[in-house]
Amino acid sequence: MGRLGISIYPDRVGVEETKKYVKLASKYGFKRIFTSLLQIKGDQEKVVNQFKDMIEYGNSLGMDTMVDINPRLFEQLGVSYDNLKFFHDIGSWAIRLDEGFTGMEEARMTHNPYDLKIEVNMSRGTHYIDQIMDYSPNRDNLIGSHNFYPQRYTGLGLDYFKQTSEQYRKHNLNTAAFVNAPSGNIGPWPLQEEMVSLEEHRGQTLFTQIMHLKMLGLIDDVLISNAGVTEEDLKAASEAFKMSMPAFHVIPAPSMTELEHKIVFESQHSYRGDHSDYVLRSTMTRVWYRDEDVPANNPVPIKKGDVLVMNNEYAQYKAETQIALQDLENNGRVNVVGHVAKEDAMILDSLQPWSDFKMLETK
Known about the structure:
By secondary structure, this protein is an alpha/beta fold. It has 2 domains: 4-243, TIM Barrel; 248-361, Cyclophilin-like (Cyclophilin, Beta Barrel). The protein is 31% helix and 19% strand. The protein is built from 13 helices and 15 strands. The protein has helices spanning 10-13, 15-27, 44-60, 71-77, 85-89, 104-109, 128-134, 158-169, 206-216, 231-242, 258-265, 284-288, 345-350, and strands at residues 4-7, 32-36, 64-69, 94-97, 117-121, 142-145, 176-179, 221-224, 247-252, 269-270, 279-282, 306-310, 321-324, 334-340, 356-361. It has an 8-stranded parallel sheet with strand order 6-5-4-3-2-1-8-7. The chain has a 7-stranded mixed sheet with strand order 10-15-9-14-12-13-11. Helix 2 (15-27) packs parallel to helix 3 and helix 9 packs parallel to helix 10 (231-242). The longest helix has 17 residues, at 44-60. It is elongated and about 75 Å long. 44% of the residues are buried. It comes from Pediococcus pentosaceus. Residues 4-238 form the 6-phospho-N-acetylmuramidase N-terminal domain. It holds the Pfam family MupG_N. This is DUF871 family protein.
């Protein structure tokens, strides 16, 4: 099972405030910490000691810290790729190579005597990971993560995200990606328009981002890129990550009856495998509720994303639950009982036939 992570920037908010945040995240099961040394300025020794203090605190709570670096920082710190003692001494679990080397250096770094994980940049694409694999790395110490992109419209497209992630999955390497918390207001730079790996996640809720990544089946660990996140958001992230099956939010129609509410929100649904291009079918509800009276109710024209319950007029299909995948006419036998929340449309689009799923009520 993958792990949840947070990001910290102690050089921006101070060590004590950061420790409070780390402890709060630990309470909700977060196990990874991302931080960056790329912005080291001023008294280098003082800054490094701040990071060391924070990393050791995270370690005491059972949280593993990866430190973001690049080749120029190696020179600045007087570190070489074949001697990673510096990162071991400050308590790091992993070092993340923002830019990387040629493949040979990365492979050699995985054989370090401290068992430091070497996390490479999945967003680079090309044949970067294959170059590393050509030099026989220690796979136990090689992992990957995507970048996050603070500027609007610069995040990864879904097809490219899938393509680059699959390059790592084929080598059975641990993968990670970043999501943005709406309540977070602290990042590594003065300006950020939310920090996400996938561009289509920008502006979405934490629930939607995390559930979507889980459903893609390509990412193990999910990391919140910004700091200063509220307890409410940390809790929501933890709950979404721990859900055993896909779920998405549905806004009930004002006319929804008590029975329709029960059918939609209290049932465990399953996407029928012999699927249609027009509707997603969850057929077991017609078995469970076959003896119930389902009169015609709100049989209006059907819009894509509408949640539907077949009424009495549909005979053997009565009480079957469906979700419209296209706009459709209504023959009067279909009750429109709700609509998939706009922000969760990408979750619905990612749902695969034969998948179990839940629908969650929202306003």
